[in-house]
Amino acid sequence: MLSRRALGWTSAVAMTVGLLPAAAVGSSRSNRNISEARTVTNHKLSETRKLINITGTGAVGLVDGRIGARSVHGAFRDVGQFTNSGTEIDRGTEFDGRGSRSFVQHLDLAVNNGRVTVTGTGTWTGGTGAYRHARGSFKLSGGGPIPGVLTSHLKGSISY
Amino acid sequence: MSNRRSVLTTTSLVAIGLSLLPAAAACKTSALHQISETRKIITIGTQGKPGTAGFRVMKAGTLDGTIGATQMHGALRTLDKPLGPGRENIDGTEFDAGGFRSFVINLHYMITNGRTIETGTGRWTGGTGAYTRAHGTFKIGGGGPVGGVHTVRLIGNLSMERIDGLSPRAH
C-alpha cells in the first residue's frame, strides 16, 4: 500500500512538473488558442471628442464617453484628406487604457458665420489590446469655431 | 482509508501543480529602456475658475518616438496646474498601442516675443498593458507660439514590465 501511495505521489509530481515546461514554453501557443476561441461582443458606443487641428491635415483631441457600461477616457489623433468642397475623409486612432481602436470617417462640413458644422459616418477598422479586431460603425455630429476647438458626438456600436 | 488518503494527496498535488501554471505562463520581466519622444501639444480647454486652486488647463497632443529600439506612435492628454509665474505642474497620460503610461512634470517656462520656451523634469507613475508599474525619469524641452502648437522633446528612461503580446509598436 505504501509503495502504491508512493507511486501515486511520484506520478502526480511527474505529471505536474511535466506540465510546467510545456506551459512556459508553449505559452504563445496557449495564447493563440485562447484568442482563437475568444468571443466577440457588440457594445454600444457613445463618445464626446474635443479636437483641434495641429497641422494642415492632422487633428488631436480628447475622448470621453462610454463603451457598453464602461467609462472611457483617452485621446485620439487623425489625418484628414479633403476629397472635394465640403467633404473630408479622416483616418485615425482613438486610445484609452484598454488599447487603441482605428477608424475611418467620412464627414460633411458646412461653414457659416465663422463656425463649422460637421456630420458624418465612420467605421472601426481594428485595434490593439481589448479592441483587437474591432469592427462596427458610428454616426458623428458636432461643430465649433474656426479656428478653435471642435466638439463632436459619436454614437454607434463596436464589436471586439 | 489509505486509498482515499492517497487519492486526496494526488489530487492536492495536481491542484498545486495546476495552480502554478498561470504563474508560469504569465511570467513578467522588468527592464529599463531609453525613451525619446517628440510631442506636439495644444490647449483644448480649461477646468475650474481662473485664479483658484482648482483651475486646470486641458491639453492634447500627438507623440512619436522610440522606447528602446521600438518605434511608438500615440496620443496624450494632460491637466496643467499653474503654480505661479513661469511654473506649472502637469499630470498627464500618454497612450500608444501597448497601453498607457501616466506621468507628472515640473515645468518652467518663459514667454518671449509671443513664444513660450519651456523646460522641465518628470517621472513615470504607472500605467496599463505593457506599461504596468512603469517608472523612471525624463527631461523635456521645447516651446511654440502662445496659444498654438508646442513641440516638445522628451528624453529619459522608462522601466516597464514586458508581457508577451503587449509591446509598444508602430500603429
Describe this structure in words.
- The complex is a heterodimer of chains A (about 160) and B (about 170).
- Chain A has helices at about 1-25, 25-35, and strands spanning about 40-55, 60-65, 70-85, 85-95, 100-110, 115-125, 135-145, 150-160.
- The longest helix of chain A has 24 residues, at about 1-25.
- Chain A has about 160 residues and is α+β, with helices and mostly antiparallel strands.
- In chain A, about 20% of the residues lie in helices and about 60% in strands.
- The model of chain A is unreliable at about 1-30 (pLDDT under 50).
- Chain A has 2 domains: about 1-35; about 40-160.
- Chain A has an 8-stranded antiparallel β-barrel with strand order 1-2-3-4-5-6-7-8.
- Chain A is elongated and about 50 Å long.
- With about 170 residues, chain B is mainly β.
- Chain B has one domain (about 30-160): Porin, CATH 2.40.160.
- Chain B contains 1 helix and 8 strands.
- Chain B has one helix at about 1-25; strands at about 30-45, 55-65, 70-85, 85-95, 100-110, 115-125, 135-145, 150-160.
- Chain B has an 8-stranded antiparallel barrel with strand order 1-2-3-4-5-6-7-8.
- In chain B, a hairpin with a 4-residue loop joins strand 7 (about 135-145) and strand 8 (about 150-160).
- Chain B is globular, with a radius of gyration of 23 Å.
- The model of chain B is unreliable at about 15-25 and about 165-170 (pLDDT under 50).
- At the A-B interface, helix 1, helix 2, strand 1, strand 2 and strand 3 of A face helix 1, strand 1, strand 2, strand 3 and strand 4 of B.
